[in-house]
Design brief:
Structural class: alpha+beta
Largest sheet: 5 strands, mixed
Shape: globular
Radius of gyration: 12 Å
Strand order of the largest sheet: 1-2-5-4-3
Number of domains: 1
Helix content: 25-40%
Number of helices: 2
Length: about 90
Amino acid sequence: MDGEFVKSGNNTEVEIRFGNNKNQKYHAERHIKNETNLNVDYAKNEIKKDFIKQADKTKQSYSIKIDGYKIEYRPFRLSDGSYNIGRITIVE
Protein backbone atom coordinates (compact mmCIF):
# COMPACT_ATOMS: atom_id res chain seq x y z
CA MET A 1 0.00 0.00 0.00
CA ASP A 2 1.36 3.40 -0.93
CA GLY A 3 1.24 6.44 1.30
CA GLU A 4 -1.53 8.96 1.53
CA PHE A 5 -1.33 12.31 -0.25
CA VAL A 6 -2.14 15.19 2.06
CA LYS A 7 -2.07 18.97 1.72
CA SER A 8 0.94 20.61 3.31
CA GLY A 9 1.07 24.10 4.76
CA ASN A 10 1.79 25.72 1.39
CA ASN A 11 -1.20 23.91 -0.18
CA THR A 12 0.88 21.42 -2.15
CA GLU A 13 0.33 17.69 -1.90
CA VAL A 14 2.84 15.65 0.03
CA GLU A 15 2.87 11.87 0.27
CA ILE A 16 3.35 10.48 3.78
CA ARG A 17 3.74 6.77 4.46
CA PHE A 18 4.58 4.53 7.37
CA GLY A 19 6.79 1.96 5.66
CA ASN A 20 6.73 0.35 2.24
CA ASN A 21 6.14 -3.25 3.21
CA LYS A 22 4.62 -5.35 5.99
CA ASN A 23 7.85 -5.53 8.01
CA GLN A 24 8.49 -1.79 7.83
CA LYS A 25 4.88 -1.01 8.80
CA TYR A 26 5.17 -3.38 11.78
CA HIS A 27 8.29 -1.58 12.99
CA ALA A 28 6.65 1.83 12.58
CA GLU A 29 3.49 0.79 14.48
CA ARG A 30 4.80 -1.61 17.12
CA HIS A 31 5.33 0.87 19.96
CA ILE A 32 1.83 2.28 19.51
CA LYS A 33 0.37 -1.24 19.61
CA ASN A 34 2.52 -2.54 22.47
CA GLU A 35 2.83 0.49 24.75
CA THR A 36 -0.46 2.38 24.44
CA ASN A 37 -4.17 1.75 24.17
CA LEU A 38 -4.41 4.04 21.13
CA ASN A 39 -5.97 2.94 17.88
CA VAL A 40 -3.04 2.71 15.44
CA ASP A 41 -4.85 4.39 12.55
CA TYR A 42 -5.99 7.23 14.81
CA ALA A 43 -2.43 7.77 16.10
CA LYS A 44 -0.95 7.69 12.60
CA ASN A 45 -3.53 10.19 11.39
CA GLU A 46 -2.67 12.54 14.29
CA ILE A 47 1.04 12.18 13.48
CA LYS A 48 0.37 13.00 9.82
CA LYS A 49 -1.64 16.09 10.77
CA ASP A 50 1.14 17.22 13.12
CA PHE A 51 3.88 16.71 10.55
CA ILE A 52 1.96 18.62 7.87
CA LYS A 53 1.75 21.63 10.21
CA GLN A 54 5.52 21.69 10.79
CA ALA A 55 7.16 24.61 9.01
CA ASP A 56 10.61 23.01 9.30
CA LYS A 57 10.44 19.54 7.80
CA THR A 58 14.21 19.00 8.06
CA LYS A 59 14.37 18.12 11.76
CA GLN A 60 15.40 14.58 12.64
CA SER A 61 12.46 14.03 14.98
CA TYR A 62 9.24 15.61 16.21
CA SER A 63 7.05 14.99 19.20
CA ILE A 64 3.32 15.15 19.72
CA LYS A 65 0.99 14.44 22.61
CA ILE A 66 -1.92 12.16 21.75
CA ASP A 67 -4.48 11.35 24.44
CA GLY A 68 -1.90 11.75 27.21
CA TYR A 69 0.91 9.85 25.45
CA LYS A 70 4.01 11.75 24.39
CA ILE A 71 5.04 10.29 21.05
CA GLU A 72 8.21 10.92 19.09
CA TYR A 73 8.32 10.23 15.38
CA ARG A 74 11.07 10.40 12.79
CA PRO A 75 10.25 11.26 9.20
CA PHE A 76 12.68 10.70 6.36
CA ARG A 77 12.37 12.49 3.04
CA LEU A 78 12.70 10.08 0.12
CA SER A 79 14.21 10.94 -3.27
CA ASP A 80 10.75 11.22 -4.85
CA GLY A 81 9.79 13.98 -2.36
CA SER A 82 7.54 11.79 -0.21
CA TYR A 83 8.12 11.21 3.50
CA ASN A 84 8.39 7.90 5.29
CA ILE A 85 7.72 7.91 9.02
CA GLY A 86 9.56 4.76 9.96
CA ARG A 87 10.14 5.19 13.68
CA ILE A 88 7.50 6.02 16.26
CA THR A 89 8.31 5.73 19.95
CA ILE A 90 6.51 6.45 23.20
CA VAL A 91 8.46 8.84 25.43
CA GLU A 92 8.31 8.08 29.15
